[in-house]
């Protein structure tokens, strides 16, 4: 008999933060998703989706990108259509990276930072960056495909002290 658990299908990850004080460099936060294969679920990502990119098959898309947090509410949004991902992919890790153009900036220096992860109208997670305030990047979610082929969600906030390029290569490590 099969599982009655339908799992997670189509998810939206949104990000909000306050603009920098007048006269200071703009804070630019980015949502990043890394996709991993069955053969290498904790190694190198098969592909990464971030600003100015999308997944090769169109299942993960950055719908809104803010470079300064000047918007109303959630300024940046990414859609993940997990139920459409090919069976070769078994894990997707989502994180937030702070662009470091104006010098080292941590989550603690950015006002009102937070994220929300929803499936339809159901909020799977909503949180801020208090626990990783000294970090420059953080993972916020992990989606894994179980043996039945169903996607499971895990809310995981883990801080990193690194630049965005190094973050994407290490965000999925075990």
UniProtKB/TrEMBL annotation:
The domain of life for this entry's organism is: Bacteria
Q: Which InterPro entries match?
A: Stress/Tellurium_Resist (IPR051324), TerD (IPR003325)
User: Which residues, by range, are in coiled-coil regions?
Assistant: none
Domain TerD residues, every copy: 5-163
Q: Which Pfam families match?
A: TerD
Transmembrane domains' residue ranges: none
Family designation: Belongs to the CAPAB/TerDEXZ family.
What is the designated name of this protein? Answer: TerD-family protein
């Amino acid at each position: 008999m099969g599982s009655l658990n339908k799992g997670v299908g189509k998810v939206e990850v949104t990000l909000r933060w306050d603009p920098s004080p007048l006269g200071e460099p703009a804070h630019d936060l980015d949502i990043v998703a890394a996709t991993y294969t069955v053969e290498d679920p904790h190694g190198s990502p098969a592909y990464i989706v971030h600003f100015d990119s999308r997944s090769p098959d169109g299942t993960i898309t950055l719908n809104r990108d803010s470079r300064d947090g000047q918007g109303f509410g959630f300024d940046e949004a990414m859609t993940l259509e997990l139920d459409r991902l090919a069976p070769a992919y078994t894990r997707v890790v989502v994180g937030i990276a702070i662009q470091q153009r104006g010098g080292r900036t941590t989550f603690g220096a950015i006002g009102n930072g937070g994220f929300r992860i929803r499936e339809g109208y159901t909020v799977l997670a909503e949180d801020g960056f208090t626990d990783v305030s000294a970090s420059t990047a953080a993972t916020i979610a992990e989606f894994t495909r179980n043996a039945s082929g169903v996607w499971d969600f895990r809310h995981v906030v883990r801080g990193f002290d690194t630049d965005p390029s190094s973050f994407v290569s290490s965000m999925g490590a075990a």
